[in-house]
Design goal:
mainly beta; six-stranded antiparallel sheet; six-stranded antiparallel beta barrel; 4 helices; 9% helix; globular
């Protein structure tokens, strides 16, 4: 359902069909066993569908946080496993300004009864993410930076990778998949790929892991998705904390960024400000193999 597929493009209408997201693509020079972790060590992570098909994170005893493009496919009454407990989905709240695009890609899921045996993950509320090393987790398609998403396989194992926040806008944290030859590459460098959108991005402060991002989408203008030097984008939780707080308090809210994302609207130099691409740009994208991925 959300497993990555090649984009279907109609040249006469200049329309892209986005591919799906997110799992973990790793360094080719590090043993894969270094990335694999036990799901029991992350009880606040919740599979929304089958493993490798969207994640959510427990942020309150009664609420999960995920991306809107995953929550849109979830149904009330669905049964979810959180740690050793099972809960039913009571309500699903997509950000009211999300319109099936990249911006405002966030959603709250209310459970029918609180989860008492799992510690919720606190939200990151500061705005100093740039330059911070983060940890991202996901299941699903797996490969290395030499292959990217197009050469990945699906094994549903949970992997943990690290990266550094290069830049931000009002909607997203932006990561780059630095190859091992770059000094900026972390020991467990990685990015997302097809299969596990909504997965958490943790940022540690004073020994506490905070939820700073949600796996959302990725692109590259000169290499394939999830290859070395590709870009990866995570919903910037700090910009949506007022909306999350309001939802947990039972209040309707449109809190969040006042405009769109500069990353989502202009990934490449030949993209215009409003995200519409010229015919020349489309042909260039075809030649370069550029794709988005969403889960």
């Amino acid at each position: 359902m959300r497993i990555s597929t090649a984009a279907v493009i109609a040249l006469t209408t200049f329309i892209f069909s986005p591919s799906d997201a997110h799992a973990i693509i790793t360094r080719h020079d590090v043993d894969d066993a270094e990335y694999i972790v036990d799901g029991a060590d992350y009880p606040a992570l919740v599979n929304l569908f089958e493993p490798g098909d969207c994640l959510a994170t427990l942020v309150h005893p009664s609420y999960l946080l995920t991306v809107a493009h995953c929550a849109a496919d979830l149904e009330t009454g669905a049964s979810l496993s959180i740690g050793d407990e099972t809960r039913a989905v009571s309500t699903i709240t997509l950000h009211p300004r999300w319109n099936d695009g990249d911006a405002f890609d966030i959603a709250l899921i209310r459970l029918d009864t609180p989860v008492l045996s799992v510690q919720p993950i606190p939200l990151y509320r500061a705005e100093d993410e740039v330059g911070s090393e983060i940890e991202l987790l996901g299941r699903g398609l797996h490969g290395t930076g030499e292959q990217g998403e197009s050469g990945a396989t699906d094994d549903a194992l949970l992997r943990r990778a690290t990266n550094t926040v290069d830049s931000v806008d009002d909607h997203f944290l932006r990561l780059t998949f630095d190859p091992p030859t770059r000094e900026a590459s972390t020991m467990l460098e990685g990015v997302g790929a097809g299969g596990d959108s909504g997965g958490p991005v943790f940022l540690r402060r004073e020994g506490i892991d905070y939820l700073a991002g949600l796996n959302s989408w990725g692109d590259s203008c000169d290499v394939d998705v999830a290859k070395y030097k590709a870009n990866d984008y995570q919903v910037r939780v700090s910009q949506f904390v007022a909306w999350v707080d309001a939802g947990i308090a039972g209040r309707d809210s449109e809190d969040g960024p006042s405009g769109g994302s500069r990353f989502a609207n202009a990934e490449c130099s030949f993209c215009s400000v409003d995200g519409q691409r010229s015919g020349f740009g489309l042909l260039m994208l075809l030649a370069l193999g550029w794709r988005r991925r969403r889960g």
